[in-house]
Design a protein that fits this description.
This is DUF2080 family transposase-associated protein. It is built from no helices and two strands. A hairpin with a 2-residue loop joins strand 1 and strand 2. The radius of gyration is 12 Å and the shape is flat.
Length: 46
């Protein structure tokens, strides 16, 4: 596993859920319009 250091304001943990031909992660509404970064922390099932 690689190690990444990211400066930010808040961290949440969530589960990626299937949507159509892709997937999504839900974040709080107050994050609308914010820049975010997603880091996968486990192996995918595929």
């Amino acid at each position: 596993m690689d190690r990444h250091e990211i400066e930010g304001h808040e961290v949440i943990e969530g589960e990626v859920k299937p949507t159509g031909n892709g997937a999504h992660v839900l974040v709080p509404k107050r994050w609308r319009g914010a820049d975010v970064k997603i880091v996968r922390t486990s192996e995918s099932d595929e």
